[in-house]
Amino acid sequence: MKKKEVAATLALFLGIFGVHRFYLGKRFLGILHFGLFMFSFMILMEEDVPLIIFPAILGFIDAVLLFVMPKEEFDERYNKKWIKSDYAEPGRYRSYGNAPALPAPATKTVEKERYFKKKGVQLFRQFRYEGAIEAFDEALEINFEDPSTHFNLACCYSLLNELDNAYYHLEKAVQFGFKDVNKVYTHRALSNLRADAEFHYFVENGFKVSAEDRMEAPRSRTIPVSTPIKEDPPNKKEAEALDLDGDLLTQIVRLGELRDKGILTEEEFKVQKEKILAEK
Fold it and tell me: Out of 69-83, 177-191, 230-244, 255-269, which region has the weakest mean confidence (pLDDT)?
């Protein structure tokens, strides 16, 4: 592995010959640099023109750039193949002597998924459900089988009363491992979904709904049979699902309904929302 300090020192003292370029593995540039020195040296000897100063200046500039270059950038440019060999296989570890193993760094894909999920939760808490849906959709583009993301999308679509989409994502959440059934029955954001008559058929069908089931389902707003609530502990992935205070969310949703009906102005809605949040 090449050292930044060694390369900079070679450039400072032997940069006129281009030695530092050979050290850094830039052989073609090193040959050109050395050729420039030889050409300038011959001109100096025959014509007494000090062109030899140019390769010296180039070496000095390289030395300054190498001294001030961050180590991460130096490694990225000149030690890339050694860095790759440390993590040749995703999820693998590599030990150095008696030193502890170094874990493979998180991939950019995982970081991007976390970013969109976090952004979606933030937008949801700001009651910007359309924006939250866009963020969660971006997360699904990266990892479609994440149950918490599907559950969060079901919550958003339920609040927007887009029940077809809510059913779809709730089905996918359960399919991919969301086993905390209690949240399906108690989460305030799914109240619109639970108020739909088809919710009963959805539950009876193992949290699955087909086009035929939805066409045959009655259109009353009463659930025919209540389903018992089970206290199942959430697993690690389910803990990432949206979790807001039930009473708080209910009050905010009701305020939003009053605003949509024209009973409250936008300014009154903001004032009342701030009062509720302050009380919590």
Answer: 230-244
The whole domain housing 216 covers: 108-244
Q: Tokens at residue 128, please?
A: 């910007």
Based on the domain organization, do 145 and 76 belong to the same domain?
no
Can you tell me the distance from the alpha carbon of 273 to that of 248, in angstroms, rounded to the nearest whole number?
A: 10
Task: Decide if 210 is inside a domain.
Answer: yes
User: How many angstroms separate the Cα of 96 from the Cα of each of 83, 90, 99, 163?
Assistant: 13, 18, 5, 55
Q: How many domains does the chain have?
A: 3
Given a contact cutoff of 8 angstroms between Cβ atoms, the answer to whether 169 and 151 are in contact is yes
| Residue recorded with tokens 């059913």 | 167
Give the burial string for 206-239 (b: 16+ CB within 10 Å, else e): ebebeeeeeeebeeeeebeeeeeeeeeebeebbe
Following DSSP, what letter does each residue of 61-129 receive, concatenated? HHHHHHHHS-HHHHHHHHSHHHHHHHTSSTT--B--TTSPPBPPPPPHHHHHHHHHHHHHHHHHHTT-H
Q: Do 204 and 229 share a domain, yes or no?
A: yes
- pLDDT at res. 5: 92
Both tokens assigned to 248: 């708080």
Task: Identify the burial level of 56 via C-beta atoms within 10 angstroms of its C-beta, where 0-12 means exposed, 13-18 middle and 19 or more buried.
Answer: middle
User: Residue 224's pLDDT is what?
Assistant: 36
Confidence at 159, pLDDT banded by 50, 70, 90: very high
Residue 88: predicted pLDDT: 38
The confidence score (pLDDT) of residue 1 equals 78
Length of the chain: 280
* 166 and 196 co-located in one domain: yes
pLDDT-derived band at 204 (thresholds 50, 70, 90) equals confident
For the entire predicted model, the pTM comes to: 0.45
